[in-house]
Amino acid sequence: MNSHVKTETVSASLPPIPFIDVASQRARLGSRIDEAVTRVLNHCRFVNGPEVTELETQLAAFAGAKHAISCSSGTDALAMILMAWGVKAGDAVFCPAFTFCATAEVVPWVGATPVFVDVLDDTFNMDPASLEAAIKVATDRGLNPRVVIPVDLFGQPADLDAIEVIAKAHDLKILCDTAQGFGATWNGKRTGSFGDASATSFFPAKPLGCFGDGGAVFTDDDDLVPVLKSVREHGQGVDKYENVRIGMTGRLDTIQAAILLEKLSIFEDEIAARQRVATRYNEALKDVCVVPAVDPRATSVWAQYTIRLPHGVRDGLAAALQKEGVPTAVYYRIPMHRQPAYAQYPAAGNGLPVCEKLCGEVISLPMHAYLDEASQERVIAAVRRALGA
């Protein structure tokens, strides 16, 4: 264990704190979830039932987008958009290297080439200057720049003002990956209302999650909607037995839609609760570690609460906290351009130093809307003890 981390244990006898607490949310909603699922069991429209249509209407209204198209996962949402745009071999798609693999994973699915971009040192989101450098790398390699995928990492939007300027200059489509940021704002507008299209995830651990896999696409492009719906349904034309394009099975099932409708009704309250937790963490920990920075133009939904420590300290902190029943997680230990499956793909020409550094320094603490003050104080005290504060 690193010498900077103290190992004394104070709260080992207390029950572990949930890292993400889906059970407390389930208890809050109580019979509403049971009744919503029962309605689906009774009408038996398990695929494309009325709850799916209602959810899409409510999601679009919440995000401030013209259209929401539900689907089977956040990954499939990204893939559906690339497929609908006809992204193909020879095209370059620009992705941050400090993200979950799904952002880049869908690019080779359509034959295109992911080109990795560095991130900013404060927000951990895509660095516009590195994006410019990555576009040059792609062009020099004979690739056709087509799409940029900014990620709303850990809950806050990327610098969409700067990215939109670059995208316009290079004729790039913007596909916003708001799997971690749905519900956040940029310049007062909700995520899901930016770019040419946005994709989100309803994986259970997300700020708005279902009880299985799920996702959605958002767009204001009327012409894109029928293509997305066709891709979602095996590329169908006038009916499921006419296939006019290559597609997938990408539907959101009706039970998950029914559950999400109930969760969406309390989502704004949960976002506010997450902000209260983050504010308390920030005030209590800012003198012992680097706490998260939120761009003044943005709000965050705090999908993760991620701090930074000097290189070599993180693992000792995690071990010390585990002894006190405080779980931690590391997002991400390996940047995408160093992952074995993606190492052959190009990156902006400077080696992506910020991504490399962050992967050795970041660690996430428990964060959810049901983290009560006593549990927060327990986390804070454990972190401060471990770091010798």
Automatic annotation (TrEMBL):
It comes from the Bacteria. Gene3D superfamilies: Aspartate Aminotransferase, domain 1, Type I PLP-dependent aspartate aminotransferase-like (Major domain). InterPro entries: DegT/StrS_aminotransferase (IPR000653), PyrdxlP-dep_Trfase (IPR015424), PyrdxlP-dep_Trfase_major (IPR015421), PyrdxlP-dep_Trfase_small (IPR015422). Signal peptide: none annotated. The keyword Transferase applies. Keywords: Aminotransferase, Pyridoxal phosphate, Transferase. Pfam families: DegT_DnrJ_EryC1. One of its GO terms (molecular function) is transaminase activity. The keyword Nuclease does not apply. Belongs to the DegT/DnrJ/EryC1 family. This is DegT/DnrJ/EryC1/StrS family aminotransferase. The lineage of its organism: Bacteria, Pseudomonadati, Pseudomonadota, Alphaproteobacteria, Hyphomicrobiales.
